[in-house]
Amino acid sequence: MRIDILTIHPELLKSPFEHSILQRAIDKKIVKIKLHDLRKYSNNKHSKVDDYQFGGGAGMVMCIQPIANCIDKLKAKRNYDAIIYMTPDGKRLNQSKANHYSTFKNLIILCGHYKGVDQRVRDHYITQEISIGDYVLTGGELAAAVLCDSIIRLIPGVISNETSALSDSFQDNLLAPPIYTRPAEYNQWKVPKVLISGDLKKIEKWRHDKSVELTKIKRPDILD
Ligand code: ADE
């Protein structure tokens, strides 16, 4: 998968891809991340990427020209499955969207700033608008990093034990069951007996029952 991220702060997006599982996915060439500094696409002599709102109002608006130039250049080279704009008024990101995007080959992600982008970018270039939650960040970069992380870890070969991604919370509309590791007893707090019984059928049933119980308590809204 190739992901092109359009931003006015590319440096903000370097670190999330330089560690752990995401870095490994890049090293293994399963995913390619390309950061594009929108200022470099500006025709303005001061590399300006924003301007005042027509009609007045507080806050600057990201101009269409640098964004359009960058997207046109990318689209001339390959087909994109989606052009996503990160914005608090977009559709909420969830596991099912991450699953869907993880099957894509080429993806563009636009990070907003200031008041947002000129509406014509949204009308003529953007195919999906995604929010990571009902709160406003200073820009779309951290949201884009969250989106990329949720997608990349689902691509086959990224997480070595594939069942580990399949048993995540939300994957089947259930939260994950409690997990334990050694020691089996700590401060007299014992691990549930069934987990050390060796009876795989019983363990599977216990995990499923716990998932249902936890989901009913913590997230009844996601229960089928
Ligand atoms: N940009 C600013 N806030 C955001 C949010 N909550 N989700 C996605 N992009 C954003």
For this entry, give a set of tags:
224 residues; alpha/beta; Alpha/beta knot; Trp Operon Repressor, Chain A; 2 domains; 5-stranded parallel sheet; two-stranded antiparallel ribbon; 32% helix; binds adenine
Q: Strand share of the residues?
A: 15-25%
Looking at the overall shape, the CATH architecture of the largest domain is 3-Layer(aba) Sandwich
Count the beta strands. 9
**Sequence of secondary-structure elements:** EHEEEHEHEHEHHEEH
Summing up helix and strand content along with how strands pair, one would put the structural category as alpha/beta
Mean pLDDT: 96
CATH class categorisation of the largest domain: Alpha Beta
Report Rg: 22 Å
Largest sheet: 5 strands, parallel
How many helical elements?
A: 7
Uncertain stretches of 5 or more adjacent residues: none
Distance between the termini: 32 Å
Give a brief rundown of this model.
With 224 residues, this protein is of the alpha/beta class. It is built from seven helices and nine strands.
